[in-house]
Amino acid sequence: MDSFSAGMEPGLQSELIDLGAVSMTALRELDDTMFRQALQHVMRQTAHPRVIASGGGGSTGRVD
Amino acid sequence: MLVLPCIVPSKRVPVPIEDHTASDGFALHRLSWADFDHLARGEGGAGVVLRLRHAERSRRLLLLRALVEETTKIPELFGPLPSSDAAWELLARVQETVPSALDLIFAHPYTGAWAGYTARLLRNRITGVCPMWMHVGHLHALAASAAIHAGLDFHTHIPLWNGGAMLPTLGLAQLAASSPWSVAEVRSERGQVEIGNDAASVQLPPALAVDAPGWWGIPRLTMRAGEHVLLVRLDSLDPYRGLYEPVLPQRLSPTEVDAWRALLDEAWHLIVRHLPDIADALPAGLDSLVPRPAVPFRMTSVSTGEAFGSAIISRPPDAASLAATLVHEFHHIRLGGLLHLTRLHEEDPRERFYTPWRDDPRPLGGVLQGVYAFFGVTAFWRALAHAGTGAPDRRAVFEFAYWREQTWRVLRVLRDDPVLTPAGRRFVDDIAERLGPWQDEPVPTDLSDLLAAVAADHYAGWRISYLRPDPGTVADLADAWLAGDARPTATHLGNDRAPTPVPDGSWSSARAELIRLSVADTSNSRNVLSRIWPSVPGATASDFAYVTGRLTDAARGYRAELAVDADHPAAWVGLGLALSGLGVTPAAGALLHYPEVVRAVHRRIRARTQTTPAPEDLAAWIGRFAY
User: Fold this and answer.
1) Chain B interface mutation, best of A8, A9, A30, A50, highest count of B Cβ atoms under 10 Å
2) Residue A48 and residue B305: Cα distance in Å, rounded?
3) Which of B35, B179, B315, B543 is the most exposed place for a label (fewest CB within 10 A)?
4) Residue A33 belongs to what domain range?
């Protein structure tokens, strides 16, 4: 997970590809291994959404 | 010509659009350790939040692509609506014409919530609240909204739920409909937008943020404090604004909008004045609030990782509560964004932790969220407590001292847990770096007893509700008591079994609530409390006696409550608190440290003999010799 590529500040690298420079038209056509892995990654994440939910007692009674 | 209330410059850094045909040359989203550490410490300004938001945009685009790919295989999924191709082409037109309009729709929190929800439906092959075509077809509503923001001429169809046609970020057109699920036509020409079906038609008003005949707008509130501006939509309409499933719209009255505006304005001024770092960052990560009605003594706030940028908040009693809640939820939002980039812990659904902010046992993921969020809450109250040169705000001092200690208590357990990843441990250590030194800051001694009482009350309440003592130990103690032994066999009660998810009796936070009320009003708290306490849910006369220092009366009252219901958790713990205040140490120790054991032994004796030992006698007997 750690990335120390030359010229880059050390940090975390995700499995999420950066689509900031991709047009909607181009996005429709992408179909290679890296893209497929990214699709599977985000779909897997949706299986267990993190809900920080609901509150109760106390004037600061929120939950988690 | 429409006046668009929501179109704002894109928050992401402009990036030239290129026509890639393969992703091999793409970068993966990354976060520097410097950003990571800033985030964990609650720092970093808007920059790191915008980087999280940029990643969220990629995530939502990927989900959209996955959804479209999945639904293209089964054209029937779109039911009476056009295929996904039409929506995609409209979105592409928007991007070519006004890119910021597309960005606005993908930054919308409930676009993320919709994508996640619909993905789950498709994967699990199940139908949601509505027929599948309604959920899948929401894509057309997103495309229509983007096109309206961009001022394009277009024509499409969108879902109609109970006669409401939702245009995300904009508002909802009310049409007549004979079926709960149908279709509305949207037509935009030369700046005029009309939504209709066979029964009715609504022309969108010039000012979309305000209500008009047939149109419910989404109020857009602007809070200014010096140079700091917070823009939020007050969204009670979007079907995907909830937590788990789509929900119907709830129209806000002008009075409610005004009340929220006033509270938000004051809360924003508090944040800007006392937490300038958070004020720099928060507008980048919170742009939509789902308002919920006020419920006395039950303020709630909720967020989900999928709806990055949003929080559901019940209307708070005052601006300081709202400010603390905004900071709390903003921390959740930031952590939710980070968790989409990396794992801070392995999956572990076991609900095994005590937390002072929840009545039930929590899994590690929830504990991590809570520690981070209450670290933010602590920072807010700390800043408020330290503000000014006059007498400190007692409520702020109390909340600061309570949350710093309680959050620290949980953090110390969390940081050693093997389920944390190395990144997760680093994240927790970063929080500790800030939170640790706050533990030594002085607090007025008159608040110390109250802080200890609230903490002991909740912890004992959790124990008696969720810990089940070892049956063998309970049997041995009951046998020894019934045999008239002067002392039980030396019994070690310190090794807790795993908590159960099912509470043994209901718990009430009434005492903590009453203590907070007494702290907030120092001038004449007994008179104020005597008027208010009956309205606090679950409060009893014994609680009122305890909080106003009449400990003998309180103990007598809790004994009477136990005589009526010998299993009542709050009465057992209340008796322990009152006896502790009276200096009755062994009984109080047992009732506050092992209430689940005392009650279980009491139950067993009752069941075996039809006699009822005096609760504090039994507690003193156990407390004197057990450890």
Assistant:
1) A50
2) 10
3) B179
4) 17-48
